[in-house]
Give the backbone structure.
Amino acid sequence: SDDFLELHSSLGSQIDLAGYELQIRAADSTELKDWQTVFAFKKGQTIGAGGYLLLARDKAVLTGGIKPDHTSATFALNVDGLQLRIYDKPHTLVHDSVAWGVGTKGGEGAVLSVWPAAHSMERRASKGSTRLTMMPWAKDWLIGNDADSNDNKADFIERFTPEPQTAGAYEPACGGTCTGGKYCNYKGKGV
C-alpha cells in the first residue's frame, strides 16, 4: 500500500507533462509491446520549477502522512524486479528509465539490487552524494535529485527511511541548512 514514485525537475521553469506517461513492464521483458501505462499526464499537469511530483497507488499510506499529487489503481512496484520509464508519447522519447531485480533486462546501465521492504531507492543529489550525505539534516538532504550518468547502479542510493516529496509539501531551497526543525520550499519561505 505504500508504493510511490517521486519525479524531480531541476529546471528553472515549470514543465507541462501533457503527453508524458509513466510506463512499466516485467523485469525480464525486451518487447516494446509489453510496456503498460500506469499514469498518463494530461494538459495542465505540471512539475514546478525545481519541484517534485509524487505518484502513488490509490489509497496509499505514505511515510509522514504525505498525500500524493496523482494516484492510480494499477500502479504497483514489483518487489522482485521491474522496469519503469518516463515516456514522452508525442515525441516517442524515453526521458528516463530505471530497473531492478535479478534477471532484469532494461533500465540504464547496471540494474539496481532489490531493496528491503520499508526502504526506498532515491536518485543521488549529485555524483558525490551518498546514503549518509542524503540523510535528514545532512549536506545533500534538500538539494534535489539530479545525478544521472545513465547508470542506475551509480545514480541511486538505498534510503532506510523513505521520504516521499510532493508538489504541495516541503520543497528544498535552503540547501539543507534550515534550523529549528523547519523545511524550506523553493519559494524561499520557511515552513
Notes: Helices lie at 152-155.
